Structure formats: structure tokens, C-alpha cells
Amino acid sequence: MNVSMLSRSALRAASSVSRTAIPITARTLASVATSQVAPSTPESKKPRIKKFQVYRWNPDQPEKKPYMQEYELDLNQTGPMVLDALIRMKNEIDPTLTFRRSCREGICGSCAMNIEGTNTLACLCRIDVDTSKPSKIYPLPHTYVVKDLVPDLTQFYKQYKSIKPYLQRKDPPTPMKENLQSVADRKKLDGLYECILCACCSTSCPSYWWNSSEYLGPAVLMQSYRWIADSRDQFKEERKAALDNEMSLYRCHTIMNCAKTCPKGLNPGLAIAQIKKELAFGS
Mean pLDDT of all residues in the chain? Predict the structure, then answer.
């Protein structure tokens, strides 16, 4: 009996010790861990308020002239690109603000506009972090405006359609066989096929401003040369003949605004020069 009672007493004592020892140990470890970590007192970032002046015009209010509307955003809460700022303006400040955008990766060309005096893509253009001056945003210059920052590109796409921008063959297609070309011939298309038809180059060209009804402009002419240079296309002479007139091609005066403003780093002026060279000296 004494042995049994002793063992039960010992068990109760041991459990009592274990119940009191565990919390003490946890508190001790917690205090040690806290003492080893620097106190976290994050300082709130000072607001960086940036002003944006955006071109506004509403076709539903034709009596009201176009004007510049000012918006203010904290750059600490805005993404780095101008498109990020425009999306915040529309979502958080003014849902009536209208602009085009799609891929946000510089692939679709939808968000082409004039930012700080340069035609570019809003999704690739970084915000000027100098908060002492406003950033000015306009639609593409010398185009009819649908609304706000949305240009009417009907004429631009009509001209693009006119060059027949697709592969044309005189030989009937061979069943189950591709139209092959050499590595060297494929390389000739580099710097041409990457064009995304954003119209930044054409709307920066003074010759296109003055003669947009007849002059095809840098973007369309570069796409025309893309098919002239393609070894698989069999309508090369017909394509060149369609351009061999006073207005379609020769209104280019190598001002080179097109190459300077292209957001993809292409050189439409070089492609136009190549077409002129082939018309003058033959391929």
C-alpha cells in the first residue's frame, strides 16, 4: 500500500512540475526570441503626388470643346507605367475616362497615344517620377478622335488592307506540303514582321499628316515591304507596281520621325528606302 501510494504521489508531483515548467519555458523562449529581433516600426512612405493632364473630348457633347483634365495620383500606390496610372484614374477617380488597352505587354498596340510629346505605348512608357511637373497625355496626333484618348484608325486600317497583307502564290498549293524558305531568306524578314500596327510611326510623320488620304505612311509601307521581301510570295512585281506612283510611296522625305518614335525599335524609313531602291534598280 505504501509503495502504491508513494508511486501515485510521485506521479502527481511529476505532472504538476511538468504543467508549471512548460509555460515558463515557453515564456522564456518567447522573451529571448523577442529580444533578438529588432523592433518593427515601419515608417509610412511620404506621399509622392503626381499630376497628370489628360486630353478629354466627348462626342455626346459636341458643343463643348476639347480640354485638358487634371488628375492627381500617389506614385507610391501606382504601378510604374503610364497605363497603370490611366487604369487607376478610370477605376478610382473618373469612370468616364476612355482609352484603349488590352495586352499590357507591348504586343497588341491598342494603348498607343502621345505621352509627353512622343507617340508611344502607354504600357511600355514609364511614368516621369518628377512630381514638380505634370505629365501630359494626348491621343495620337492628326487623327480624328472617337472619344478622349481613342483615335479613329479607320483610314489607317483601310490602307493596310489595300496592300493585301498576306501570302500570294501563283502556283497552286501542293497538298500536305509547306512553302519552305531558307534560313537566309527568313532572316530578311527580321525587323519587319515584328510591327504591331500601333500607328505610332504613321501619326508622327508630317508627310502622313499632310497626305494621309493618299500617302500610305511608314507602318503600311513597311508591311508592304515585308511581303515584297518574302521569298515565298510570288506577287512581288505586282506589289511594287501598286506603289510606283507619285503619292503612295514617294511622299516619304526621310524625316525619320517613324524610326525615332517606334516603341518596338523598328526602322520603317529603312524599309521605305529599300522599296525605292528596288523600284529604281530592280531586285
Answer: 88
